[in-house]
Amino acid sequence: GANVTLRCQDEEPANATVSWRLEERGGSRWLAGGNALQLPHLRPEDSGRYSCFSGGRPLRALRLLVEEPPETPRVSCYRRSHDKDVLCEWPQRAKPSPGTRAMLWV
């Protein structure tokens, strides 16, 4: 996946330690400190609410949604004979990502 950097504030707070917390479906956990949080090789399970704190005080909260990129659907249509209906198939090797769409114009 892609790499993302989340910034707590435009400028790092003076004489303050910034810490990050990730809230996800299963609970929350503390992450690395610093004004900028580096998130390399993102996967869908990295989705959640990222909050930064300084001195125990919340400064900013960001919601990150990571999804698989939509793939190009491979649709094939055919007719067994001229008096039969057209049949279209969309074979899938895996469950399509939520953003995948196909439209059939007849």
Automatic annotation (TrEMBL):
Q: Note whether DNA-binding occurs among the keywords.
A: no
Q: Which keywords annotate this record?
A: Immunoglobulin domain
Q: Which SUPFAM superfamilies match?
A: Fibronectin type III, Immunoglobulin
Residue span(s) of domain Ig-like: 1-52
- Specify the superkingdom: Eukaryota
- Protein known as: IL6RA protein
Provenance organism: Centropus bengalensis (lesser coucal)
